[in-house]
Amino acid sequence: MSKSLQAIRGMNDILPEQTPVWRYFEGTVSRLLDNYGYKQIRMPIVEFTELFKRSIGEVTDIVEKEMYTFEDRNGDSLTLRPEGTAACVRAVLEHGITGGGQVQKLWYIGPMFRHERPQKGRYRQFHQIGLEVFNLDGPDIDAELIIMTWRLWGELGIRDAVKLELNSLGTSESRGRYREALVEYLSAHHDKLDEDSQRRLKTNPLRVLDTKNADTQAVLVDAPKMADYLDDESRAHFEGLKARLDAVGIPYVLNPKLVRGLDYYSKTVFEWVTDKLGAQGTVCAGGRYDGLVEQMGGKPTPGVGFAMGIERLVLLLETLEQIPEEISRQVDVYLCAFGEEAELAGLALAERVRDQLPNLRLQVNAGAGSFKSQFKKADKSGALYALILGDDEMAQQVVGFKPLRGQGEQQSIAWDALAAHLATCVVQG
Ligand code: ATP
Ligand code: MG
């Protein structure tokens, strides 16, 4: 017998029972982004490998070991996107929509691919909603991004479960000076560092700061601090951001070890973390990347953005039981018809009702069946009401209207009056 077909490890199906939560989440976020004046952009899922090497940096975990890279039939090296910023920058440059200082406030949604070890909250195909703003360099827009996510957590009912961590990596000049001091200090303690950190010390020294190794962490206690190396510009930017968060009343903790996995960040970096999901606690992360567009061949263009992990946020909604009950009900009314003549009349009636109530979720029974079996299906559908068309109803040109969730007795409604009646008893989404 042939081996049964399976999905690739770490790449998940999202089954019909789960999609309502996803759509609720995605709908809530996209409405919020619309309301703050952000516009959606859609990029391809596959790009030239070179794009990610140039933007993310050769010596990051993503580029070193997590990318899905392959050769296509032309011999080009292509990569399934591991994140969205690179492709978004490529797209705005290619179409010239950030030229001349044009402000762009963009967002995107879709699958990302990283060859990581699959576990709860960490997958190989996962989904992000991301956002990028170009040509605004002040702390006001950094603050807006954070304020917007704060509102989102509020709307979703998960505000108490997440915490904002904040840091500044400074301008590239001040980061350069800090890197030198850090390398000097860590080199003096080289033997006490774990192997990974010894390697990072050469390739990407700031990444040593987010080591999980206890011995290395002990060495870091007395290491130089970024905060002492910020120049006036970086300091003023960071203070400006904090003042705005204070004005809106958003609590945060300063985390000097927050450096983010990607090379391109500068000044503001932040993460929203939760302790409700175990080790995979970061649900949204981002920061400023003022040098990236130039690094990718464009004119100097300030940028700032973030990405949130949809799987982790859906898990958090489920864990905290913050899923509104009404989102899982997908049928308002279920029409049962008995006999061929009733079935034809039922079809026509259903279409007339749909003409008048385009948002009504009306399901017509398919596959015929006895009275009992159609009722069972009506009940299982989750519908609030069943509509019944049998011989008696046909004769009188009425439809039986039966509450399925215990709201009163069955009544007869004239066909012509059905839509008006449904409008009064079904709240339409
Ligand atoms: P982590 O530290 O958890 O590996 P990261 O710093 O690599 O995250 P980013 O590249 O900043 O993550 O992506 C933004 C968000 O996307 C993360 O905060 C997380 O919510 C989500 N995310 C990242 N990688 C995965 C993954 N493999 N599976 C599920 N969600 C992910
Ligand atoms: Mg990662």
From TrEMBL:
Its main location: cytoplasm. It comes from the Bacteria. The keyword Nucleotide-binding applies. Keywords: Aminoacyl-tRNA synthetase, ATP-binding, Cytoplasm, Ligase, Nucleotide-binding, Protein biosynthesis. GO terms for biological process: histidyl-tRNA aminoacylation. Residues 1-358 form the Aminoacyl-transfer RNA synthetases class-II family profile domain. SUPFAM superfamilies: Class II aaRS ABD-related, Class II aaRS and biotin synthetases. One of its GO terms (cellular component) is cytoplasm. Its EC number is 6.1.1.21. Gene3D superfamilies: Anticodon-binding domain, Bira Bifunctional Protein, Domain 2. Pfam families: HGTP_anticodon (PF03129), tRNA-synt_His (PF13393). It catalyses: tRNA(His) + L-histidine + ATP = L-histidyl-tRNA(His) + AMP + diphosphate + H(+). GO terms for molecular function: ATP binding; histidine-tRNA ligase activity. It is found in: Cytoplasm. Belongs to the class-II aminoacyl-tRNA synthetase family. HAMAP family: His_tRNA_synth (MF_00127). This is Histidine--tRNA ligase. It comes from Pseudomonas moraviensis.
